[in-house]
Amino acid sequence: MIGTPHVHLRVVDSTNARARALASSGAPHGTLVTADSQTAGRGRQGRTWTAAPGDALLMSLLVRGVRPLLPLAAAVAVCEAVAPSEAAIKWPNDVWIDRRKVAGILLEGRPQEGWAVVGIGLNVLTRSFPDELADTATSLALAGHDTSVAGARAALLAALDRWIEAPAEEVLSAWRARDALRGSPVRWGAGEGVAAGISDSGALIVELPDGSRTELDAGEVHLQR
Ligand code: BTN
Q1: 3-state secondary structure 71-105
Q2: Which of 69, 84, 138, 177 is the Cys-Cys partner for 100 at CB 3.0 to 4.6 Å?
Q3: How far apart are CA 139 and CA 69, in angstroms?
Q4: Alpha carbons 181 and 197: distance in angstroms, whole number
Q5: DSSP string of the chain?
Q6: How far apart are CA 33 and CA 28, in angstroms?
Q7: What is the Å distance from ligand 1's center to 42 Cα?
């Protein structure tokens, strides 16, 4: 079972940074780092990730023997663990409830050495967010899910244990069933179009205004609300 050994810290700069250091010094597959709070939590695209102490599940899992769809598998696992009937995924791996972000996932690692750290920030007990997130973020508590941080962690580890080993077709099919963007107008740095699902490699397919299609492998896509 993943989640052992488990290092829990009251305060850390970033659980991902700590897990990466452990990975470099030979920690085994399944090593888990959690914290009550972070002073330098990292998000995707160089952003920061903030959460009030004790309100969020802040965890980083070391995975050795990385599969290409790991980022998608992690998002499916979060959905299944926290809100199986309503959670959706905004490409590539933000988890939404009611079209608001409840969890973010940051993968960091050394593909050439065969390991990655799956960092997950899940808003569990949060009741209010800073102004800049007030319209776009939610928590399990706000969405009416009565759970603790420890309960969410246990459920998430069980789901991750299954999904990080799942065959690619299963991951793709579960991800596609939760695709929050499909059919919606989206924009990104270089253009805009309508989201049309994901390819078998996990790229976002977008239909352009001229009817052609393009695939986005990485980066940030915004839903045109
Ligand atoms: C994102 O949506 O931008 C990804 C956010 C990932 C945040 C988590 S919190 C636990 C782990 N440690 C970090 O420094 N970041 C991830």
Answers
A1: HHHHHHHHHHHHCCCCCEEECCCEEEECCEEEEEE
A2: 138
A3: 26
A4: 8
A5: --S-SEEEEEEES-HHHHHHHHHHTTPPTT-EEEEEEESS-B-GGG-B----TTTEEEEEEEEES--TTHHHHHHHHHHHHH-TTT-EEETTTEEEETTEEEEEEEEEEEGGGTEEEEEEEEESS-----GGGTTTB--TTTTT----HHHHHHHHHHHHHHHTTS-HHHHHHHHHTTBSSTTSEEEETTEEEEEEEE-TTSPEEEE-TTS-EEEE-SS--EE--
A6: 12
A7: 5
Tokens matching residue 75: 């998002």
Contact indicator for 106, 71 with CB cutoff of 8 Å: no
Ligand 1: distance of its center to the CA of 200 in Å?
25
Q: What is the pLDDT of residues 32-42, one digit of tens each?
A: 999 999 999 99
The 10s digit of each residue's pLDDT in 65-104 is: 989 999 999 999 999 999 999 999 999 999 999 999 999 9
As given in the structure block, the two tokens for residue 21 are: 């250091």
Q: Is the whole-model pTM more than 0.90? A: yes
Tokens of 40: 């330098």
42 lines ligand 1 (CB under 6 A): yes
Per-residue model confidence as pLDDT tens digits over 137-187: 999 999 999 999 999 999 999 999 999 999 999 999 999 999 999 999 999
CA angle (81, 87, 88) in 5-degree steps: 125
